[in-house]
Amino acid sequence: MGQLIRPYYYQNEHPSMTSHQLTLIANPYAESGALETLPDTEGLKVLTKEELLSNPHIFSPSEKIICTSESVLDLLIASLDLADPRASAIQQMKDKHLFRTLTSAINPDFYFKEFHPAELESLSLDPESRYVLKPSKGCFGTGVRTFTGSADLNAIGHEIIAEIERNSSVLSDSVLSNDRLILEEYIAGEEYAVDVFFDSQGEVHITNIFHHPMPKNSAYLHMLYYSSRDTHNLIYPLAIDFFEELSSQLDLRNMPIHSEFRLVNGALIPIELNPMRFGGMGLTNLNSPTLGINAYQQFIEESERDWAATWNSQPELVNVFFIAYNGTHIDKTTHQPNWPLLRDHFSEIIREIPFKYQQQLAFGVLILREEQSLLAELLAIDFDDYFLPI
Predict the structure, then answer these.
(1) For the chain, what is the mean pLDDT?
(2) Do 137 and 265 reside in the same domain of the chain?
(3) Is the CB of residue 344 less than 8 Å from the CB of residue 386?
(4) What pLDDT is stored for residue 135 in this prediction?
């Protein structure tokens, strides 16, 4: 984990909960990147998991609250008022089976099925079709496998369970479990991520849109996201339509969501919805240094950005969020990251946040400015080649 940098507006250990407009709950011992890249935000209070545990507070439905990652989501839920409708909405979005059931009204023809790992042997699949198998409760792409119906399902199931067990030291069973799996039809198409919030009146506000191209090695699933004017203009109207329909089902208010979609025949098909947070590890802060986008400030002020003016100011800009994973075959006790070799790939590094890689799934994140034509080269990186003996 990188050094924890507390912004200047970080208040004292147990301040009044009424002196600000948004509480950001963070677990600096579980993830890095989010706090280190946090832009100056008036009205935001950062509260660590330990501080909230030692000084519990129950948030009313009218209070704005957000977290940095899945590792504090359970604590956030426990801190909500019993009458807060956000608790039920969170459950429906985070459980992948309930999520698919919820969005079946929007995508009625989408195939999915939940089951126990022991039931894999009894599944009968179309050998020509592609599927995705993953834990019903999961994050950071852990245990996600894509295959055709002719594949050895038992072998794939064992791989998923083994990967979950390897990552359990970093990701708790509250966000990652191996007792239920969900099988879905494979969604072809380009992947996009959207940060959005619903204000106190239930209105939809989009704060960021990212293109998420797939890396050559699927083990590095979240390696690269980027934002650009073309990406924004393509996805924005489709995302607004999706979230307005979602809000009509759940009556969402004072809720941020980080979402992932595939674009299929001009329609957005959701992959997952991550309530009560924006893009993790600092992704949502990608455009802050160059475009001045501050998703947290917008959430506090319930403001809508002038997107035409934003992108017209720098129409050719491509901002890149790059996660430097630990190699898949690296012994972290005997090897360390080769940062100089990695830096040689990049045109311009705007921010670099190293992690304590022995405690994380990656050794750092970087915010870059790149030529779009060079992104394919970055997506081909194998991080096994970027470690040296200690």
Answers:
(1) 88
(2) no
(3) no
(4) 79
